């Protein structure tokens, strides 16, 4: 494992996927879904790619996928929920691109690109927010359970794909994170 990455609590573009998973495990995430897929990239068939969903007991869910025959991290997004507090605007800078959705229930759902500096990101989220291990259904916002192979077909039905993947999650995860309709 690249010790420099661990020393800096960091990850890189084209991260070795096994190293990335090791960091997720050390952060308390458990793999809860694994979906193999094939896709074409620049005309070349890539037969051994994987889409994964990881879950932490404090309610964070991370979706990621591989490329180059499963060796490298291609994409990753982390999702989380927390009460809407005054500290959101003060702490949002620490997490990169955020996508918050506020409701009248004073609950926020956030999402971040999780490819870079995953250790720092997760630790900052845990430090800055009271993460909700059981989410409140927000409506209008959902977790993107698609991988790059899904979107090759220009007529793909993201609602159906997302619904199908959510149904494949273990009961523990479905009880914590409600099915969200788009």
What would you note in describing this structure?
The chain has 6 helices and 6 strands; from the N terminus they run H-H-E-E-E-E-H-E-E-H-H-H. It is of the alpha+beta class and 182 residues long. The protein is globular and about 50 Å long. It has a 6-stranded antiparallel sheet with strand order 1-2-3-4-6-5. The chain has one domain. Strand 2 (44-56) and strand 3 (61-67) form a beta hairpin.
Q: Helix segment count?
A: 6
Uncertain residue ranges:
89-96
Helix % is 25-40%
Tally of domains: 1
- Estimated structural class: alpha+beta
What is the average per-residue confidence, as pLDDT, rounded to a whole number? 80
Shape: globular
Described by strand count, sense and barrel closure, the largest sheet is:
6 strands, antiparallel
Distance between the termini: 39 Å
Strand segment count:
6
Strand order of the largest sheet: 1-2-3-4-6-5
Radius of gyration: 16 Å
Strand content: 25-35%
Which secondary structure elements does this structure contain, and how are they paired or packed?
Elements: H1 3-7, H2 17-26, E1 29-41, E2 44-56, E3 61-67, E4 72-83, H3 87-91, E5 101-102, E6 107-113, H4 118-128, H5 158-168, H6 171-176
Antiparallel strand pairs: 1-2, 2-3, 3-4, 4-6, 5-6
């Amino acid at each position: 494992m690249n010790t420099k990455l661990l020393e800096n609590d960091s990850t890189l573009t084209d991260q070795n996927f096994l190293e990335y998973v090791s960091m997720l495990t050390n952060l308390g995430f458990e793999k809860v879904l694994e979906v193999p897929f094939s896709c074409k990239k620049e005309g070349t068939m890539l037969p051994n790619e994987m889409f994964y969903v990881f879950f932490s007991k404090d309610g964070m869910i991370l979706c990621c996928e591989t490329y180059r025959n499963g060796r490298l991290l291609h994409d990753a997004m982390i999702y989380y929920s927390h009460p809407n507090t005054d500290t959101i605007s003060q702490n949002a800078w620490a997490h990169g691109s955020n996508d918050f959705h506020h409701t009248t229930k004073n609950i926020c759902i956030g999402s971040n690109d999780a490819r870079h500096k995953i250790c720092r990101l997760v630790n900052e989220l845990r430090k800055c927010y009271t993460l909700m291990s059981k989410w409140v259904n927000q409506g209008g916002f959902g977790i993107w359970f698609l991988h790059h192979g899904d979107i090759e077909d220009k007529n793909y039905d993201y609602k159906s794909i997302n619904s199908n993947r959510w149904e494949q999650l273990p009961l523990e995860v479905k009880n914590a994170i409600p099915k969200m309709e788009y």
